[in-house]
Write a structure and sequence with these properties.
Chain lengths: 326, 383
């Protein structure tokens, strides 16, 4: 186990370290890198326009950091796609990418299909529901990959781990992180506790890594990435960048329950597959919650399947597309 | 400027909307980033810093923030013999605690302050890139100025400071406001913005300050205002009291008196002072009139070349100039005898409310109009 404090010192950054965009682009061009931005969407008409306008203007037109900006959509019924296209994003319906593999509804599905559809050597994933979007949400997490070849996977976080004058204060992931994911990591993968916000939806990853890992299509995608990349490359392959404040939709506790359930199923699958915990029973896909109506109570059952897409390198169409099987 | 020159400009103006399309996202991105930085009057520093950073990124000359918080920079011209000033105010009437999150729709951008005046400030941040992209270089140097402390009790402090202290003699000026497209302001009315405060000494008087204020409002309504000088008295805001069950000890009224005749404003303000003096004789009643802002009447005639050429540019773009020619944004220039016009960039609504918005599509026409006006003024400066 490596020293977590040392890793925090060497692999934790602040976005302001990378605000010299001309220098960043020079380094990118020197390596001949292509960078793609993927914004997974499902009914995000309130925020998608602003994200596309900002990223296109600041990180394509003004500073050519991004080679493509793509919105990959799970079937929005609002004007998400119309708005994104009107401001110049490449817009794709997830169901129409790699149709031979069918379509499954979920954010992880969009992220997985982005590997097939997009051109970049680096793919940056940014959620569409960020209210205070800013170019730093992209350059802050791409820059470590450009400047340090040994780094393969960069996560965003949104809080400062250390206070300057008032000693140390606890730093925060969200509720699911602190109540579920960090305790699980503490038990089974202690080094991964150094990732301050393991569930953040903003991360930049090298294609060579993405195409080798499976993708749960639902809530478990971020957790599974961390475990799978950690097993393959170790904590040294990770970095994280402080992006300051992130304002997004508040989720109800019941919805966080569903998220936790999905993450837990994904987590248990990995414990079983890697032989960490033997003899786990077959896990149910039913999450049971309860609601009150006057003085009576009733059970609500949610079916939450955490299906997984295989590593993209195992898909024939992808291998043909990138020329491996020729 | 002769007719051939203005014809050339008009001819170029016709093609500008098409040429400006590639710059749309860049402007909109600046609108979003500026709008989301709160900038209440006297609290504009962060927004001004952003603008200065943009000026620096473009490589403009003499980028700096002056001592009252204006961001300024110079875009050099080909001969630099004259200077044209292009300004937009940075402050908004919204407190920093207001939610400043922008929403970008296909046709509109919603955000508090987006029309007044984030769009105007964004234009300043984007214009150097646009002019370079279009291959347009003015003969005059262009002074770009994002002004601080403009609204309400700021009393246009930023622009007044700049015009009083600037090292560059300004030949003409354009004041940019977000909305409405079609605004062509070139005259300022005389005005007096005042705040009447009423305080009651509870030991000797048990009336409510609101009751006294009510009497004042009644008396103000009985003032005889000269019709021939287009004089208006606007009662803008009232506040007072602490609870529904206790007579108010304090109450305030904010108002504006405006006229196209300076002397009328002086005379009517004198009448208001006399009235307050008389009413303040009541025991335990203290009345005070405080200056919020004053402006002076004046400005350009409708036949002035800058006005006439700008109107030609607007007409060429299908923009119908509004009938109103007066605006307080011109007043600082009147005080310094600098020819100035005020222009708007697009349409919008709900100004100074949380659902304030601007329309996206007309912005291209608004920028074309502004560039055409700049070219016309540049030509007029060199006649």
């Amino acid at each position: 186990m490596i020293n977590i404090n040392e890793w925090l010192q060497s692999n934790t950054f602040h976005h302001e370290q990378f605000s010299d965009l001309p220098q960043l682009i020079k380094a990118k061009e020197k390596q001949g890198l292509k960078i793609s931005l993927c914004i997974p969407t499902l009914n995000e008409e309130k925020t998608i326009g602003k994200e596309v306008v900002l990223f296109k203007s600041e990180l394509q037109d003004r500073y050519p950091l991004l080679d493509e900006i793509a919105v990959i959509d799970s079937g929005s019924t609002d004007r998400t796609l119309e708005i994104a296209a009107s401001f110049g994003a490449d817009v794709y319906k997830s169901a129409e990418i790699l149709p031979v593999m069918g379509f499954k509804r979920g954010k992880g599905e969009n992220l997985w299909k982005a590997i097939y559809q997009l051109q970049g050597d680096i793919i940056v994933y940014v959620d569409a529901d960020i209210k205070n979007i800013h170019p730093r949400f992209v350059y802050g997490i791409v820059a470590p990959l450009i400047y340090q070849s040994e780094i393969k996977y960069v996560k965003a976080f949104y809080d400062r781990p250390l206070a300057l004058s008032q000693g140390i204060r606890p730093t925060g992931g969200g509720r699911v992180t602190e109540i579920l994911v960090r305790p699980l990591f503490s038990l089974f993968f202690p080094e991964l506790t150094a990732i301050i916000q393991p569930l953040s939806g903003e991360y930049a990853v090298r294609r060579e890594v993405l195409e080798r890992i499976p993708f749960p299509i639902g809530y478990g995608v971020e957790t599974s990435h961390l475990i799978d990349v950690y097993y393959e490359y170790g904590l040294e392959a990770f970095a994280q960048t402080d992006l300051d404040k992130r304002v997004h939709r508040h989720q109800e506790t019941r919805d966080l329950g569903k998220m936790s359930f999905g993450i837990l199923r994904t987590f248990c699958k990995r414990l079983k597959d890697r032989g960490i915990v033997a003899n786990l029973p077959e896990l149910t896909a039913n999450l049971r919650q309860f609601q009150a109506l006057d003085n009576s109570y009733e059970q609500v059952i949610h079916e939450i399947y955490e299906e997984e897409r295989p590593p993209m390198l195992k898909i024939v169409a992808y291998r043909e597309k990138i020329g491996i099987d020729r | 400027m002769n007719n051939i020159d203005i014809e050339k400009i008009i001819s170029r103006v016709h093609s500008l909307p098409g040429e400006l399309v590639p710059f749309r996202e860049m402007l909109l991105a600046n609108v979003v980033m500026i709008s989301e930085i709160p900038a209440p009057t006297f609290g504009e520093q962060e927004r001004i810093s952003f603008l200065e950073q943009r000026f620096n990124e473009y490589g403009l000359m003499n980028c700096c923030t002056d001592e009252v918080g204006n961001a300024q920079a110079i875009l050099p011209g080909t001969d630099n013999l004259q200077a044209i000033l292009l300004t937009a105010h940075a402050d908004t009437p919204f407190p920093a605690s207001e939610n400043h999150t922008c929403t970008v729709d296909v046709k509109k951008i919603y955000c508090p302050g987006v029309a007044d005046n984030s769009l105007g400030l964004a234009l300043l941040a984007t214009l150097p890139t646009i002019l370079e992209g279009l291959g347009i270089r003015l003969q005059s140097k262009l002074l770009l100025l994002g002004t601080s402390r403009s609204l309400d009790q700021g009393n246009q402090c930023g622009i007044r400071f700049f015009l009083t202290n600037s090292r560059y003699p300004v030949k003409s000026a354009i004041v940019v406001e977000g909305i409405p497209l079609g605004r062509l302001h070139y005259r300022s009315m005389a005005s007096f913005g005042g705040m009447i405060s009423c305080n009651i000494d509870r030991k000797v008087n048990h009336k409510s300050a609101i009751e006294i204020l009510n009497q004042i409002i009644y008396q103000l309504g009985r003032l005889t205002l000269p019709v021939e000088s287009h004089t208006d008295l606007v009662l803008g805001a009232v506040s007072g009291g602490a609870s529904y069950k206790i007579p108010a000890r304090h109450a305030q009224l904010k108002f504006q008196l405006r006229s196209d005749d300076d002397q009328v404003v002086i005379d009517v303000t004198g009448q208001i002072n006399s009235m307050l003096e008389e009413m303040g004789k009541e025991q335990g009643v203290s009345l005070h009139l405080e200056d919020i802002a004053r402006t002076q009447a004046g400005g350009l005639d409708s036949s002035h070349p800058i006005v006439a050429k700008t109107r030609q540019v607007m007409t060429a773009l299908g923009i119908q100039p509004q009938k109103s020619i007066y605006s307080p944004i011109i007043t600082s220039y009147v005080e310094h005898e600098i020819p100035a016009i005020g222009l708007g960039l697009t349409y919008g609504d709900n100004i100074h409310y949380g659902d304030e918005y601007i329309e996206i599509d007309p912005i291209i026409t608004g920028i074309a109009q502004l560039i055409g006006a700049l070219m016309a003024i540049d030509g007029a400066c060199h006649d």
